[in-house]
Amino acid sequence: MRHISVTSLLILFLVGSAFQTAGAEYNNWNQMDGPHGGSVWALHLADNGAMLAGTLGQGVFFSTDSGQNWLQSNLDNVSVYDFARGTGGTYFAATQNGVYRTDNNGRSWRRTSQGMDETRVQAVMVHESGRVFAATLVGGIYISDNNGSSWSQANEGIPLKFGYALGVHPDGAVFAGVANRIYRSDDGGEQWSPMDTDFPHVRTNAIAVNADGVLFAATQDGVYRSADAGQSWQATGNQFANAEIYDLAVAHNDRLVAATREGVYTSTNDGDTWEADGLSSFPVYSVGYRGGVLAAGSNPGVFVRN
Length: 306
Prior knowledge:
Elements: H1 6-17, E1 30-31, E2 40-45, E3 51-55, E4 59-63, E5 71-72, E6 80-85, E7 91-95, E8 98-102, E9 110-111, E10 121-126, E11 132-136, E12 140-144, E13 152-153, E14 163-168, E15 174-178, E16 181-185, E17 193-194, E18 204-209, E19 215-219, E20 222-226, E21 234-235, E22 245-250, E23 256-260, E24 263-267, E25 275-276, E26 286-290, E27 293-297, E28 302-305
Antiparallel strand pairs: 1-28, 2-3, 3-4, 4-5, 6-7, 7-8, 8-9, 10-11, 11-12, 12-13, 14-15, 15-16, 16-17, 18-19, 19-20, 20-21, 22-23, 23-24, 24-25, 26-27, 27-28
C-alpha cells in the first residue's frame, strides 16, 4: 500500500517534532487523543465506532469509540502498512515482518506467514472467495486459502516482483500494483496480465473502486482512473500541491478522498477536479471511511471528521 524510504524517516521526525506548533488549518478535522505511536500509515474503520490504526514502528492500536480513545495491541514493535477485513472479528495486517491475524477485532494478533520467503508485506486483501492476497516488497504476490495460516507465491505473468498495492473489481477481478505496472487476474491470482495502457511507469501506492466499478490508482504522480476494468487509464485532475498520493478512500456518494504529503484532497466528480480539504500542513498517509465518519492518519495520530 504505502512505502517509506530511509530519507522519509528524517522527514517524519522533523514534521512530528513540529506537530504541536504547526498552526495548521484543520478545516473541521478533529485531532484525536492518540494513538501515541508516531505516524499512522494504515487505517481501518469498522462497525460500531471501532477503528484500527497501523503505525510506523509501533504496531497496531485500536479504538472502540470512533477514535476518541486508543489502546495498543500486543502487536507493538513493527511497522504496519495495511489492513484487510475477513469474517466476523477477523482482520489481517500487512507488516514489515509478515502478515498478522486477529480474531478479536484487533486486540491481539498472531503471525500467520508460513510459506513466505519475503515477509516485507506492503498490502493485504481478502477476496469475496475467501482467498487472502498479500503484496510483498521483493516477493511479488502471495495467496492463502486457509485464512492466512500458510501462503504460496502467485506471480505467473509478473516478471518484476516488487508488490505495493491490491484491489478488487466488482466483477471479482483482482488488481495489483507491482513494480511500475498494474496487473489483473481473473482466476484468483493464478495468472496475471499487465493492464497499463496509458498508465505511467510509476509506483502505485493504493487501489480503490467506487460503486460504479470505476478503478482509481494512487501513484507517485497523482491519481489515475479506469472506467473499463483496467483496460485503459487516464490521469485525473492534477490540482495537488504534491503529486505523491499515499492512499485513497471512497466516501459517501462516491466522493474520493486522497491522502497526500500536504493534507487531504477530495473529488466529487470521479477525479476530474480535486480540492484541498484540510490538514494542509501535515503529511497524511492513510484515509478511511465508514458510516459517515472520515478519518485521516498523519504524523502523529489520527484526525476525524463526521
